[in-house]
Specification:
10-stranded antiparallel β-barrel
Length: about 260
């Protein structure tokens, strides 16, 4: 569930500068996140054969598509941006409902070498499945710098770090039974619950704006998970996820 949490975690998909107190952004976003599809914790995925789990495996990447709206604010303090949207995990009925708030600590000094700096807090809630309860909190630090290109295009490369806190609780999960005719029936099990899964994500990308149109691309890397807990309720569950890479693109209008 740690790898699924990374796939549905909020992506920044924007530089440090806010939209301004009158700014509004509407966007569509597409993302691809690697998973360790050969690991046993993906064996319960639909399509995996119980008698030979190597015959059919889930895809190496999870694809997501979503839509967002973002609004710049001036109250209660300047340089605030709020956003909300929804992301669908393709080929599933799962949706992640997301919201965030961003504060620019420094922005607008585009004629100086100083970069823009912002922090963001975001939340994602997975719905559309009764087999897992999964929430993801994120805290970001991002730096960016805006450049004019040809007098008509604005280019804003950005880099940053993201702390992900994944709260995942397994409900009863369906899995085909092992062996013979019984393989047509269904058994149920639970994944071990870890109190809180901690992942780090490093990302970089760029936003290109022409008039009110923009295109943004982002690449992210998440090292393998190592967090664990020793609580009696979880049986000392540990995060066995592998490292993950993801790419995302978004396009829309800055109004």
């Amino acid at each position: 569930m740690s790898e699924l949490g990374v796939a549905v975690a909020p992506r920044l998909q924007s530089p440090a500068d806010t939209l301004g107190f009158a700014g509004v952004q509407i966007s569509a976003e597409l993302g691809f996140t690697e998973i360790s599809n050969d690991r046993s914790f993906w064996d319960a995925t639909e399509g995996v054969q119980p008698l030979n789990t190597k015959i059919s495996r889930p895809p190496e990447t999870l694809a997501t598509v979503g839509a967002f709206i973002r609004k710049g604010m001036f109250y209660p303090v300047p340089a605030i941006e709020l956003g909300a949207g929804a992301v669908n995990v393709l080929q599933s009925g799962m949706w992640a409902l997301q919201a965030y708030g961003k504060i620019a600590l420094q922005e607008g000094f585009h004629d100086t070498p100083l970069p823009s700096v912002a922090v963001r807090v975001a939340f994602s809630d997975l719905v559309g499945t009764d087999q897992v309860d999964l929430d993801v909190w994120g805290a970001d630090l991002v730096l960016s710098k805006a450049f004019g290109v040809g007098g008509t295009v604005r280019l804003e490369p950005f880099v940053g770090w993201n702390l992900l806190l994944i709260n995942a609780k397994s409900n009863l999960v369906d899995a085909p039974a092992q062996g013979g005719a019984a393989a047509t029936t269904t058994t149920k099990f639970r994944f071990p619950d870890q109190d809180l899964i901690v992942r780090n994500r490093w990302f970089g990308g760029a936003k290109v704006r022409l008039w009110k149109l923009f295109l943004c691309a982002e690449f992210a890397f998440v090292p393998a998970g190592h967090s664990s807990d020793g609580s009696a309720s979880s049986g000392g569950a540990a995060d066995g996820s592998g490292s993950q890479k993801s790419v995302g693109v978004s396009a829309g209008f800055d109004l």
